[in-house]
Amino acid sequence: MTSSILVEGVRIAFADHGTGTPVVFLHGFPLNRRMWAPQVEALASFMRVIAIDLRGHGESDAPLWRYHVEQFADDVAAVLDHLSVARAVLVGLSMGGYVALSFVRRHAAHLKGLVLTDTRAQADTDAARAARFQMAQAALAKGPGAVADLMLPKLLAPTTLETNPSLVRQVRALIEGMSISGIAGDLMAMADRADSLSLLSSIRCPTLVLVGEQDQATPVADARLMADAIPEAQLVIIPNAGHLPNLEQPDRFNEILRRFVGSLS
Length: 265
Ligand code: MLT
Description:
- It contains 11 helices and 8 strands.
- It is an alpha/beta fold.
- It has an 8-stranded mixed β-sheet with strand order 1-2-4-3-5-6-7-8, with helices on both faces.
- Strand 1 and strand 2 form a beta hairpin.
- It binds D-malate.
- D-malate binds at residues 28-29, 94-95, 190, 217, 243.
């Protein structure tokens, strides 16, 4: 069921399915909660699946400004508060992982577990910030299709691009559904985000670090860095997947997640 709340006048949409341990799914850039469709379908009979459209995405509002990773984390906390969920497992993919790390910094008491998938703890380099500005300019000049052209080779493994045209179309459609304000807002939020390396050793909840073996955007080395620094984190590398293993290898991804969440109850 899709619902929404208002956070200071900005509508935040989310879907809430199933019962059991609450697991909150946070999508990457420039996507929306529909990227979690295979997880909603397969996992809602084992756990409570809450998939949020971060502001600027999907059915949430896309205001012109007020995009910060901290604001995204506070929006997630507001949804949990609205649902009276005291503690949840957060699953954050890429930008969703940046939001999850900000949630650790701001709302750690509400965490039952953490899944950091295809993400990194380091802040942007100057070169990465410059590339984000160029991408925002391309979006403004040519529309979200230009962002899809730039992002698809980073999101999907070469084999997925070659052999799974329907998934390529699906991901392209998610990107093309973005507004320019949402794209620019995300890019500014990611460029401005804090470095989280020093936060990692303070994470006290059970943590799973996942990564697609062929992820080029946030490679295995970034995942290993986080898993080594977070006390007792597990690292799982998913073969034959790039930056979106939940879509490229959904059965494997779902099984790993189901076991992790099952181990927490
Ligand atoms: C994402 O998938 O959310 C982005 O690739 C993250 C980023 O650009 O840093």
